Amino acid sequence: GQPNDKPNEETFFTPVISLGQIEMKNAKIQISIHKEYKNQIQIDIVNLLGDVIPENVYEIKRWSYAHWIPGEVSPATGQSVREVKIFSKTKHNLILVISPSDKKIWLHEIDSGINYIIPVTNFFNELLRQRKEIFDKASGLNPNSIFENINKFSDADINNAFINYSKLFAKVDVGAYEEMKEKKGLLDFLKRKLFKAYGKRTNNN
């Protein structure tokens, strides 16, 4: 921005491109940085353990999702994450990362290295539409339960949910990306073969 500029309220709705925390004995400071919009960048600094930031603090550790790269664990917890490459026949630049241990989802843009934080609720709404039969098992739209059951969703489920989510909320340009068809495993193949064989015997009788 420029000197004397007034804050542009539209920056409140821009994607979060960096999120991290500084953990202290008596405070937990969370810092989030939004994507630049019309030469302005919004930075939010919040104490998750209180209304104010103490003057005298003792830092224990700090971490940020901004530093994450493919193959690494969650910066917040050190636990494993699930990586799903967003499907495209021409581009291979997006990886959706789901971290059950800290209940976070982010989108890694390979070319820029930016990790966009993805709001959980709207994405999970789209994910549950992909597999309605899991809805009850995952306790409906309960984020904790869905994170716990995330392995019940295939890469295709997650990919297609993200494509539909992005069309609605436009966090990044997904014009070159598309939905995936579910890959059938060996068991499905054998079932189809048996079904066809059974059908032929029935017709012959």
Tell me the total number of β-strands: 8
Taken in chain order, the helices and strands follow as EEEEEEEEHHHH
Largest sheet: 4 strands, antiparallel
Helix and strand content put the structural class at alpha+beta
* Helix content bin: 10-25%
Shape descriptor: globular
What does this structure look like?
With 205 residues, the protein is an alpha+beta fold. It has two domains: 1-67, no CATH class; 68-197, no CATH class. Helices cover 25% and strands 22% of the residues. The chain is built from four helices and eight strands, in the order ββββββββαααα. It has helices at 120-130, 143-148, 155-169, 186-204, and strands at 16-24, 28-34, 43-47, 59-64, 82-85, 94-99, 104-109, 115-117. A four-stranded antiparallel sheet has the order 3-2-1-4, with no helix packed on it. Helix 1 packs across helix 3. The longest helix has 19 residues, at 186-204. The protein is globular, with a radius of gyration of 22 Å.
